[in-house]
Amino acid sequence: MSIVVRNLNNKHRLNEEFIKELAADIIKILRKPRSTELEIIFLSDSAIRPLNRRYKNRNISTDVLSFELGELGEVIISSDTALRNSRIFNTSFEEEIVLYIIHGILHLFGYDDETAGTKNRMSKKENDIRKRLCGKENLSKVLTRR
After folding, report:
1. Per-residue pLDDT tens digits for 15-47
2. Torsions phi, psi of 65, nearest 5?
3. Does 143 map to a domain?
4. What distance in Å separates the CA atoms of residue 60 and residue 22, rounded to the nearest whole number?
5. Can you give the CATH number for the domain in which 18 is found?
6. pLDDT number for residue 45
7. Contact assessment for residue 65 and residue 78, using Cβ atoms and an 8 Å cutoff
8. CB neighbours (10 Å) of residue 108?
9. Torsion from C-alpha of 71, 137, 7, 126, nearest 10 degrees
């Protein structure tokens, strides 16, 4: 399994090695092939907005974008949105980051949230994975401590 994590948003320091481990655990929970190649990129709102406009025809920033590129899956996350949403939804920044990683990976493996039914199915799977991960890991490790 090949997982690459890149934090291109210097406003938020992240533990890239721990995020790789979380992504590998998610892929194992989903029982996906060991040959899976995944890239997770963290951007700012201003950097993710043009991608959302270009690929989703939505001229706003977004939390997560997922792209299947042949053998490679790419998940792009706005860590700015994660911080903002953590305040709105009274969660931690770490919980939001983990949710976005799960959400993006689920999109790569065929889950979608376009209709009420598929959104409900995806939400149930996200919650199941979060429960399994949170029972195993201290999610505060998502952050790189100074």
Report:
1. 999 999 999 999 999 988 777 899 999 999 999
2. -125, 140
3. no
4. 28
5. 3.40.390.30
6. 97
7. no
8. 20
9. 60
> Which neighbouring-strand residues pair with 67?
74
In 3-state terms, what secondary structure has residue 141? helix
What range does the domain containing 28 cover? 2-138
Residue labelled with tokens 């911080």: 83
Q: Look at 32-36, 64-68, 105-109, 123-127 and tell me which has the smallest mean pLDDT.
A: 32-36
Q: State the Cα–Cα distance between residues 45 and 139, nearest whole angstrom.
A: 23
Closest C-alpha to 22, from 129, 145, 128: 129
Structural domain includes residue 146:
no
User: Is 76 part of any domain?
Assistant: yes
Give the number of domains in the chain: 1
Residue 43, beta-bridge partner list: 78
- Radius of gyration over alpha carbons of the chain, in Å? 14
β 64-69/72-78 pair status: antiparallel
Whether residue 146 is predicted with pLDDT greater than 50 in this model: the reply is no
The amino acid present at 112, given as its one-letter code, is: D
Residue 37 lies in a domain: yes
